[in-house]
Amino acid sequence: MSAAWSERQSWAARLNGGHTPPRRAWDLLEALGPRRLSSAGDEEWAQACGARVDEAARWRRSALDFDVAAEERRAEDLGARLLVRGDGEYPDLLASIHDPPLVLYVQGTMTHDPPVAFVGSRVPTGYGLRQARTLASDAARRGIVVVSGLAGGVDGAAHAAALEAGGKSWAVLGTGLGRVYPAEHRELARRIWAKGGAVISEMPIDTAPKPELFPRRNRIVAGLSWGVVVIEGREKSGSLITARLAGEYGREVLAVPGPVDSPLSEAPHRLLAQGAAWAFSIEDIVAALPRGVVAATPATSSAARADDVHSPEEERILALLGAHTLSLDELVHLSGLDTALISSIMFGLETKERVISTPGQRYAQKEVC
Prior knowledge:
17 helices
């Protein structure tokens, strides 16, 4: 049985269920807090989130009308928990994008293993399926979490291959957790969280599939991941949306070259022409990611860890932390380094047990905690 939602979680679910845009909802939650959200009027809501009064009034009515008690019961029935932006468990990488979800409904476990997205056509060729299975299974064996959107074709093949290799996968839905789509992937979704991975959505539990929700899903796939690997797709495809978003977020974009006479090679070849890295093998993927994100092979891991601890960037971050507890944003501001690099450094320092994460997406040196 899941723990009862806090007032903050309940109000975040209300705002989300009432279709308040994520950035506005975050502003409201931060500015007013759960108790003032309950008592404030339309004008105070508008002032808190910088919206017109009529917009704020609409969001306020929808939030108050949302049946949050029923939503909590449904989440409990599904064994799902609610992560709110700002919580310690909320993924740092996703929090760093310009429009992170206010909430994530999560079935299963989101570990600290490095995530990489594998996306592509819903109707791939045999070649595309082979590449998806090979790359995803090799990634899983290297300790990478295979992230995708649970769609048919490449997505499903990548999820399944990761599980078969004994690894973990995260499936991001464009529907609610209670309406897994496509329906034939319900069992795959169950296996993903049962085997130590996670099924994730920002949508209220019983949200049905709608075309406009899947691009929103794609931003989460890109935001959660250190890199996005595109395996087959046409010139206009959801995979290109995910790749474009990944580029905007400062993540690595890779593409698997395909046969020149295949229409499904259009998307990866376009990305390669625009400067994406090629992905012939798992080593290409690992090499494209920020240094230290993926652990070194067993033969070199001890030496690599020793070198990394004394890298100038890591020593700089440790010096900034000192005896303090700092947020990711504070570390970015103080160090002058970009968010993606800081996230990579913090991941490495956590792996080496030099720092720990604390509630509210903050970090401290382990020796002083």
